[in-house]
């Protein structure tokens, strides 16, 4: 309904928007007060509607129709989405008042428990180490990014926080997607530039000064990684393109004989009847490679079911799965969806006691190495995989840690230069680790950048980072607990968790929520986060995720919650008739 009392329906737009059968199936007649939607939200909504209904939308003229939104809701225990659409005349869309930081809600939500007698408890909350984030933000130029009224990026300038040319206030970037990739400090980008400008050369292969300098910097980065995780020596660190390649390296090496005994009797391999144990909560990169191994070798792939309540690690179920035939166990250290921290000490103890002698353990440490102290000698695992880009390093670099004796018991992953000892026309011999797993020209600059990232993290102190994130993560969890209609996945309030929270709402699908938040400058992740089996186990197809790092502030969390509540109120104002669950997957229309 517009200001003059007019009402517009989806029917009047059907002929211009999509074929009648699509419109009839995907849209529903509803009425809406246009003044509750900002123009920026309208732009996002129109983009969603355009994606779903399949045709471009006209914005701007008072006579044109505006496809405002195609809404979708996450279905609990049903993997489908249902859409309703609202269409308004663009002249009826007005700018809503700026989002208030007072997130009080007049409604009652009996499922929510407040952390104090007032829902405004958070206003007086202060972080113990409140100086950490402000002291480092200047090192990350991208965090000064802002957006104009149309959601377009404004390059960081001294006046970026000022009002735009049209008098509308610009939005600052609130980056809450560090679990996907962290931002990079000046120290890292400068190290990359310095390498290319002053030391660019291939490593290990030249006698000239540039090659020696490049080799020194490259191997120094390996030493920094080894020290960061307390490995015994640099020989236990293999540079890879990331954690995915690190896991695939081990999986491929163990299965390249397709289950047949290798020519070298000392080489490790998997064969028919051997058991591989993973969990239902794993990232796809720690599931798919082991499925491939099972297909190639005849090994049996078993998994620990996710706890239906929290998705957490079930030690009892894990213990039951371990048998004398168990040869390999690969699990997350920290869940990238739940934020839960797996009990590695207990897992290792159970495997060493019950599995086959010499059974190997791999840890996916992507969400732990950047955020907490990881000591591989204390953990006593055989392998860990980690990604550089999640710990302030460049993309395209990661590492595999492996006990030196174990690495030298694996056959090469790839063949080529650098990984050889001697090459003859009828056979070749191979270099010891780590060289045998680094065929060809490596990612030299990226490795040096990773070394610079470790220097940067060490300067701050990984313990300080961890302590700060534990408190900030608890604050985020508690703030989300107070938001009506939000269900947070993973451990309950009061349980230590990693600095991330995945959540679902009844009002809006995570993809649409992410789009609306993006228009307001808030960057979160929406989707299944490469964890489809876990989401199915919990009864959802997708979730939204906010993830933090040491450069995030309490204000980042508060701004996120303010925009989230504003968006949910907007969707909630449409009423239950506008968004109702479908009975089958026929109405599911994915955005991507």
Secondary structure layout plus pairing:
Elements: H1 14-17, H2 20-26, H3 39-53, E1 65-70, E2 85-89, H4 132-136, E3 146-147, E4 153-154, E5 171-172, E6 174-175, H5 186-198, H6 209-228, E7 237-240, H7 243-255, E8 275-279, H8 288-297, E9 300-304, H9 315-321, E10 326-332, H10 344-354, E11 360-364, H11 376-379, E12 383-387, E13 398-402, H12 404-407, E14 420-423, E15 428-430, H13 444-460, H14 462-481, E16 486-488, E17 500-505, H15 510-519, E18 522-523, E19 525-527, H16 532-538, E20 543-547, H17 554-572
Notes on the protein architecture:
Strand 8, helix 8 and strand 9 (300-304) form a beta-alpha-beta unit. The protein has helices at residues 14-17, 20-26, 39-53, 132-136, 186-198, 209-228, 243-255, 288-297, 315-321, 344-354, 376-379, 404-407, 444-460, 462-481, 510-519, 532-538, 554-572, and strands at 65-70, 85-89, 146-147, 153-154, 171-172, 174-175, 237-240, 275-279, 300-304, 326-332, 360-364, 383-387, 398-402, 420-423, 428-430, 486-488, 500-505, 522-523, 525-527, 543-547. The longest helix has 20 residues, at 209-228. The two termini are 32 Å apart. Helices cover 31% and strands 14% of the residues. The strands form six sheets. A seven-stranded mixed β-sheet has the order 7-13-12-11-10-8-9, with helices on both faces. It is an alpha/beta fold and 592 residues long. The relative contact order is 0.15. It contains 17 helices and 20 strands.
């Amino acid at each position: 309904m517009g200001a003059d009392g007019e009402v517009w329906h989806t029917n009047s737009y059907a002929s211009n928007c999509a074929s009648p059968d699509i419109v009839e199936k995907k849209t529903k007649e509803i009425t809406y007060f246009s003044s509750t939607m900002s123009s920026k939200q309208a732009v996002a909504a129109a983009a969603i509607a355009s994606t779903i209904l399949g045709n471009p939308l006209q914005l701007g003229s008072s006579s044109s129709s505006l496809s405002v939104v195609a809404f979708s809701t996450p279905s609990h225990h049903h993997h489908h989405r249902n859409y309703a659409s609202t269409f308004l005349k663009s002249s009826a869309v007005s700018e809503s008042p700026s989002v208030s930081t007072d997130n009080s809600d007049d409604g009652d939500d009996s499922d929510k428990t407040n952390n104090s007698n007032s829902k405004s408890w958070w206003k007086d909350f202060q972080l113990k180490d409140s100086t950490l984030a402000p002291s480092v933000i200047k090192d990350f130029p991208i965090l000064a990014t802002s957006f104009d009224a149309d959601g377009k990026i404004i390059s960081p300038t001294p006046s970026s926080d000022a009002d735009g040319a049209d008098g509308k206030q610009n939005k600052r970037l609130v980056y809450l997607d560090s679990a996907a990739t962290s931002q990079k400090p000046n120290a890292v980008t400068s190290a990359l530039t310095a390498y290319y400008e002053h030391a660019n050369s291939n490593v290990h292969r030249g006698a000239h000064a540039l090659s020696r300098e490049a080799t020194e910097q490259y191997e120094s980065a390996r030493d920094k990684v080894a020290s960061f995780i307390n490995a015994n020596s640099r020989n236990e660190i293999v540079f890879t393109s990331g954690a995915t390649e690190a896991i695939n390296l081990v999986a491929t090496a163990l299965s390249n004989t397709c289950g047949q005994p290798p020519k070298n009797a000392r080489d490790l391999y998997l064969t028919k009847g051997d058991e591989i144990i993973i969990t239902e909560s794993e990232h796809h990169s720690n599931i798919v490679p082991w499925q491939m191994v099972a297909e190639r070798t005849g090994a049996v792939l078993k998994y620990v079911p996710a706890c239906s309540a929290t998705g957490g690690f079930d030690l009892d179920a894990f213990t039951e799965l371990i048998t004398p035939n168990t040869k390999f166990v690969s699990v997350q250290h920290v869940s990238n969806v739940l934020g839960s921290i797996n009990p590695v000490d207990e897992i290792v103890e159970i495997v060493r006691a019950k599995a086959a002698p010499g059974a190997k353990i791999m840890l996916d440490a992507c969400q732990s190495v950047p955020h907490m102290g990881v000591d591989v000698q204390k953990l006593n695992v055989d392998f860990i995989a980690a990604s550089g880009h999640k710990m302030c390093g460049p993309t395209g670099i990661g590492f595999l840690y492996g006990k030196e004796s174990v690495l030298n018991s694996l056959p090469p992953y790839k063949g080529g230069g650098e990984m050889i000892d001697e090459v003859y026309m009828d056979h070749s011999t191979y270099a010891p680790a780590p060289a045998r797993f680094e065929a060809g020209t490596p990612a030299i600059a990226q490795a040096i950048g990773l070394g610079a990232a470790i220097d940067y993290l060490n300067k701050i102190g990984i313990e300080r980072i961890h302590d700060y994130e534990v408190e900030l993560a608890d604050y985020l969890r508690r703030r989300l607990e107070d938001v009506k209609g939000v269900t947070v996945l993973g451990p309950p309030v009061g349980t230590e968790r990693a600095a991330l929270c995945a959540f679902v709402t009844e009002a809006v699908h995570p993809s649409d929520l992410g789009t609306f938040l993006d228009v307001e400058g808030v960057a979160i992740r929406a989707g299944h986060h490469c964890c489809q089996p876990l989401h199915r186990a919990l009864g959802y197809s997708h979730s939204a995720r906010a993830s933090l790092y040491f450069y995030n502030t309490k204000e980042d969390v508060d701004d996120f919650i303010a925009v989230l509540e504003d968006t949910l109120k907007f969707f909630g104002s449409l009423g239950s008739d506008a968004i109702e669950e479908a009975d089958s997957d026929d109405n599911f229309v994915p955005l991507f």
